[in-house]
Write a structure and sequence with these properties.
It comes from Pseudomonas abietaniphila. The chain has 401 residues and is of the alpha/beta class. It is built from 16 helices and ten strands. The chain folds into three domains: 96 residues, no CATH class; 116 residues, Nucleotidyltransferase, domain 5; 126 residues. Strand 7 and strand 8 form a beta hairpin.
């Protein structure tokens, strides 16, 4: 067996005494070196007295594609300080039924593969793989330094089908996901501010978000010094849904007796919503120009969208205020009900728009992270435990140093 121990030096302090096939697996019998005193599993001090021997079956990494089961003879020592304790083994955790090598390999595989695939690859139970990954995530998150954010980004993403959402809070400076919770109401995001504490809330200077009233009110309650900054993309998307789409449908209904003209307007939805620089072909540009020239209402709301986007690139607060008043005046003068209604609603959010002058922030960072979250969710075919899913997300986005 000396030659076997030379070629299989994986189990420090133990010798291979027998190798035999066990179905599709290999069973390897290990016995401790007789010339080495065992160490106490509690204080790690050498012990000369062995209280008893016990045998434990332990899983290890496969060898040549075959699963490995170790039959290990372990010693329970009589320690003067700790009493009767199992000996310390360098390649085995206390009470573990698999080696540290196998556990590390499983955790590394979980970073690239779904839990079910990892379980099948190593021949382990699904719950065992999930428990190993959970412990690794908890250990990794516990080593992260305490966050002291000054600027935040808040958004939500779809957690399950059926309009079930989760809220995400990101540190805008370090790109670290600070907190995730189910729901998008005030009660759902309140635990984050309670966890941040009064000192942490007082440190917050600005928060970027979409026009989510729940986020807005909760930030104003807990962070009175923070300025809310509304994201341009969400406002323009809302304008497209509530104004451009509404006017397009109204104009199509008005031309119900002119079927060719009605068809042109009905099929122009994405042409109107797309930015001019994103038109792919000259034919699309010509089509858009002809459409706007033929319909005054569509021309108005299309140009008003460009003016609305310009409000997010002001040079100074006084210039923004002048442009803002002009945009509101043009909206009311248009006599387009959908545009007038949108302007009335947007008027209550002007502070979050003008904050862009001082804090040029947006939720684009979090939108990119939300796309990565979707990939993580799809790779695992969904998660049964939301808490575990949230830990997985936090570990993927620990922030920049």
């Amino acid at each position: 067996m000396r030659d076997i121990n030379t070629f299989l030096p994986f189990w420090e302090g133990f010798s291979v005494v027998n190798i035999k096939p066990d179905g599709d697996a290999l069973q390897i019998d290990l016995t401790p070196h007789a010339n080495r005193f065992p160490s106490c599993g509690g204080c790690l001090k050498p012990c000369s007295t062995t209280h008893e021997y016990c045998e434990r079956v332990i899983r290890d990494l496969p060898i040549l594609g075959r699963a490995v089961r170790l039959s290990v003879l372990l010693r329970r020592v009589a320690c003067r300080d700790c009493g009767k304790r199992m000996e310390a083994v360098s390649w085995l955790d206390r009470y573990a039924r698999m080696t540290r090598r196998l556990a590390d390999a499983v955790i590394q595989a979980c970073e690239r593969l779904p839990t079910l695939h990892v379980a099948q690859m190593f021949g382990l139970h699904w719950d065992t793989v999930r428990l190993l990954e959970r412990r690794a995530l908890q250990a990794a998150l516990s080593t992260l330094p305490k966050a002291q954010p000054r600027r935040l980004v808040m958004d939500e993403f779809a957690l399950f089908k059926g309009h079930r959402y989760a809220s995400v809070v990101l540190d805008a400076d370090t790109r670290r996901v600070l907190w995730i919770g189910e729901g998008r109401s005030r009660a759902a995001v309140r635990p984050f501010f309670e966890e941040l504490g009064p000192e942490g809330c007082a440190r917050i200077e600005a928060v970027a978000m979409d026009m989510n009233t729940a986020f807005d009110l909760e930030v104003r309650q807990h962070c009175p010094k923070a300025r809310v900054v509304y994201d341009l993309f969400h406002v323009v998307a809302k304008y497209g849904r509530e104004v451009i789409d509404r006017v397009r449908v109204d104009e199509a209904n008005r031309l119900r007796h002119d079927k060719p003209a009605r068809k042109v307007i009905k099929q122009a939805r994405w042409l109107l919503l797309r930015n001019p620089q994103n038109l792919k072909t000259p034919e699309q540009q010509v089509h858009l120009q002809d459409l706007l020239a033929a319909n005054q209402s569509l021309m108005t709301v299309y140009l008003m969208k460009a003016e609305l986007k310009a409000l997010w690139t002001p040079g100074a607060a006084w210039a923004w205020r002048s442009d803002w008043k002009q945009w509101l005046r043009h909206a009311h003068q248009s006599e387009i009900p959908a545009l007038i209604q949108f302007a009335k609603r947007l008027k209550g959010y002007w502070r979050g728009i003008v904050s862009r002058v001082r804090w040029p922030m947006h939720t684009g960072q979090l939108e990119g992270i939300n796309n990565r979250i979707k990939v993580i969710k799809r790779m695992a075919y969904g998660y049964r435990d939301s808490e575990f899913f949230f830990m997985k997300i936090k570990s993927v986005f620990p922030g920049n140093p």
